[in-house]
């Protein structure tokens, strides 16, 4: 076959796959884009809509509730991801040591991460229960707490408690990636460093961390993107309460579209959230490109 | 086998296959119900089974979701363009929205005229909107005041409270005597349950949600209700955890013998009296929720729910047949332990009243004074606004005046 014909055949064979990708990715995206410029509302017969131009976006700029939701989401993302990274690296370092039963512990590590988010959320709701929750029992028995308290009913603690539940579930992913990264750090670097008189602390900062930084930062960005669109854990644990103190952007978009049935402005909020995620995705792409250049 | 036989066999198989549906005209109805309060999942399944047995060829596919997800499931299923559910369970607060947005079929012509007088008016308000009927009432429900008879006796209280003021006083006595740490438990989580307790109190203060034709929450009964809620928290007579509780949490706390008073739906009466589920079985008292002193004798929230045919249903006839069966007096009388019938004459039927006379006595008062939540097509959003603003008061983040003014202002902007 001539090269040109070969090309044509290749494209022909790829067409079905490209068509499917366009259908499942581009169509919903374009549909959302169109909706965002209308005042469409969801009815039993589909959308009823009128073109409103940029009105939805103008409203978003002025919406203090949405700004609050962005604040909650940012707080959740920063706190949970940074603690997950620190915890993940520490656990990875521990599991990189030789000790008896290491394989078993490594296998156990996967467990929280393998749990469905909904199961995890229900489980932590039970742990935080104000009447018979085990957290209350533990803290009162060791004397840290005078009386049982309501963790998810208090705006001062609700968000942090959800973050704790999220960390427990998601740090194993970071730990696993860091652990994999540790295997690639050459052993002779450590031997040379010891010969030069570097202590454990220096070895960690000068060899270990730079060695795993590449994979770790990718994991971090991916986790951050995921954390930013968090929905299910809040849906089960707090439903945005108390007094809206744990309402995240995804929950906000959901409510706008499916509880208030405003598909138009819901889509506009969704696009705004997507734009924020896109920023993080851009960071991720830049990182990937840099890594490829280096290797 | 040669090819002639092969193709003949294929043709025959095709013929048989195509003619099959003609023999069995099975219709499967998809129905969505809720998981908590009122009729249990088991009761609902048993009713549907009885319906299937009585109607060969009709199958009912039941789906149960938490109340909190019910509204969104119904609208998302239809909005997505699929025919979704045939029969939907809807709350009293949704018909304005569902009717104006075309989620339900108008069933005015299907409801027998004779039934209008046999069923409580409060039940009809669940399905009436804009002069049309959008379904058949199924659950006739309101919140009652439950009390622990032992605790009241121990505290030397001879009769349950008749006013909200008395409720707070009695709770204070029980607290001071150390009988219960937090005597009253409510469902004040950021959810519809909070609005139900609030509405009941507004009704008990003879308040109104409308002022000069506009939604208004910053005067009269509404302010009195929210102030009362906050004060019982400040005085330590209301369980502070109420702010994260739904109805099921209230039931568990009351059934564990940790509360002297609780506001909850009908279903709690028989569940709190079930020794398998409760430590206070046999000691459960029930009275209509009180009113405020000098304003009302009793208060109640219209928490009824109806069954309707969704707009996209391809089997409206069969769906209505199912709804008629589920809401029939016969079916309702048979399962009257967790939810009371919509039919007036059932309340004189020994089969219904036996063993739950206390509940029936309370119901006879409460069902007559049921107070409705605001009727508006934007109800879900209005409810979110109220939930947030009332919770801000209960959490001490805002004063009643500021929060309820904010709610009124936000309600004025609803589209």
Please explain how this structure is put together:
- The complex is a heterodimer of chains A (295) and B (415).
- Chain A contains twelve helices and two strands; from the N terminus they run H-E-E-H-H-H-H-H-H-H-H-H-H-H.
- With 295 residues, chain A is mainly α.
- A two-stranded antiparallel ribbon of chain A has the order 1-2.
- Chain A is flat.
- Chain B is of the alpha/beta class.
- Helices cover 45% and strands 15% of the residues of chain B.
- Chain B has 18 helices and 15 strands.
- Chain B has helices at residues 3-23, 41-54, 67-79, 95-100, 115-118, 121-124, 149-154, 164-176, 192-204, 220-234, 247-255, 267-272, 316-327, 329-334, 350-353, 357-366, 379-394, 400-412; strands at residues 27-34, 58-65, 87-91, 128-129, 132-133, 136-139, 143-148, 184-185, 210-211, 214-215, 261-265, 284-290, 298-301, 305-309, 370-371.
- The radius of gyration of chain B is 24 Å and the shape is globular.
Short synopsis of the structure:
The complex is a heterodimer of chains A (295) and B (415). Chain A has 295 residues and is an all-alpha fold.
